[in-house]
Amino acid sequence: MMETKQPYSIRLFGIELSAGLLALLFLAPFYFVIVNSLKTLGEIIVDAASLPVTYHFANYAKVWSIIEFPKVLWNSFLITGLSVAGIVMLSSMTAYQLVRRPTWFNNVLFVLFISSMIIPFQSVMLQLVRVTSLLELRGNLIGIVVCYLGFGIALSMFLFHGFIKNVPLEIEEAAVVDGCSPYGVFWKIVFPLLRPIMVTVMILNSLWIWNDYLLPVLIIGSNRELTTIPLAITKFFGQYTKQWDLALAGLTLGVTPIIAFFLLLQKHIIEGITAGSVKG
Predict the structure, then answer these.
(1) Where are the beta strands (DSSP E) in 82-176?
(2) Do the Cβ atoms of 209 and 171 come closer than 8 Å?
(3) CB-based contacts of 82, cutoff 8 Å, min separation 6
(4) Whole-Å CA distances, 5 to 8, 11, 14
(5) Are 87 and 153 in contact (CB under 8 A)?
(6) How far, in whole angstroms, is CA 143 from its chain's centroid?
(7) CA 163 to CA 30: how far, in whole Å?
(8) How far apart are alpha carbons 189 and 14 in whole angstroms?
(9) How much is the pTM?
(10) How far apart (Å, rounded) are the C-alpha atoms in residues 240 and 24?
(11) Contact 220, 231 (CB under 8 A)
C-alpha cells in the first residue's frame, strides 16, 4: 500500500519555524562564546555580539600555556571517566538487585535512594567538608571520585531501575537453566541489554562531572596536581580584572571534548529511544 504524502500546511510551517527559532535560541550561547574567544578584551567590552574585526587565535595559545591545558584536560578526563564508570557499574548492579528481589527491605532502600535526590547539595556542603577531612579524602583523586559516586548513584539507579523492569525475566531463567551463575546472568545477559539506558546515564553524569565547579573546589581545593578545567579557568577572574577573552577561549577548549563525546553517542541515544518504544 502506498503511503499518502501529507500536504504542506500553515500549521506545519508554524511548527518548523518555531523549532528553528528554538534551535537558534539554544545555539546563541555557543555563538557568543566562540566569537568572543577570538576577540581582544577591548572588542568584547565595546560590542560582544559583533564578529571579530581581527581573529585573535593567539588567545588559545595563551590559555594553553597559562592553565597548562593538557594537564587539566587529563585531570578532567581521569576524574570524569573513573566517576562515570563507577556510577554505571554500581547503580546498574543496585537497580538489578532491587528489581529482581522486591523484598520489603529492598523497597525501603529504593525509597531512601529516591529521597536522597531531593536534598539540595548546598545543605550538606559543610558536613561533606568535615567528613572528607576526617576520612582524609580531601585533596586526592579517591576523595573526589567517592564523592561523585555518592551524589550520582541515586538518579542513575532510578533510571536503571525503570529500564530493568522491561528486561524479560525468561532470558535470565534460560541462562540459569544452562548453568549460568547469578553474576554471569547479570554481566553476560542483563548488562549488555542495558546499553541504551547506560548511554543516557553516561551522558548525564559526564556533562555534570565535566562541568562541575563546586564539588572540586571543596574536595580538591588548592591541589594543583588535580586541577580540572572549570577550576583552571577561574584564574582569569580576579577581584579587579576579568580576562574575558582568555576565559572564553579556555571555555571553548574545555567544552569541545564533551560536545564531541555527546555527538559520538548520539546514535546510541536514538537507538535507545526506539528500543524503549517497542518494549512490552
Answers:
(1) none
(2) no
(3) 141, 145
(4) 9, 16, 18
(5) yes
(6) 19
(7) 34
(8) 46
(9) 0.85
(10) 34
(11) yes
Which helix (H) or strand (E) segment holds residue 87: the answer is: helix 69-100
**C-alpha to C-alpha distance for 182 and 198, rounded to whole angstroms:** 21
**Residue 43 pLDDT:** 87
DSSP string, 206-262: HHHHHH--HHHHHHTTT-GGG--HHHHHGGGB-SS-B-HHHHHHHHHHHHHHHHHHH
DSSP 190: I
The beta-carbon contacts of 88-93 under 8 Å, at least 24 apart in sequence, are 88/156, 88/198, 88/201, 88/202, 88/205, 90/149, 90/153, 91/152, 91/153, 91/156, 91/157, 91/159, 91/160, 91/201, 92/156, 92/157, 92/160, 92/191, 92/194, 92/198, 93/186
Spans in the chain with pLDDT lower than 50: 1, 274-280
Q: One-letter amino acid identity for 138?
A: R
User: Which amino acid, one-letter code, is at 152?
Assistant: G
Task: Report whether 184 contacts 175 (CB < 8 A).
Answer: yes
CA triple 118-110-214, angle to 5 deg: 35
What is the chain's percent helix, strand, coil content, to nearest 5?
75, 0, 25
41 close to 245: Cβ distance less than 8 angstroms = yes
Q: Is 125 helix (H, G, I), strand (E, B) or coil?
A: helix
Residue 244's pLDDT is: 87
Predicted confidence at residue 8, as pLDDT, reads 65
Give the CA radius of gyration of the chain.
24
What pLDDT was estimated at residue 67?
Answer: 87
Amino acid letter, residue 200: T
Give the C-alpha separation, 78 to 228, whole Å.
Answer: 10
**Cell 526506539 found at:** 274
Domains of the chain and any CATH numbers:
65-277 (1.10.3720.10)
Task: Provide the pLDDT for residue 180.
Answer: 82
Contact of 43 with 248, CB cutoff 8 Å: no
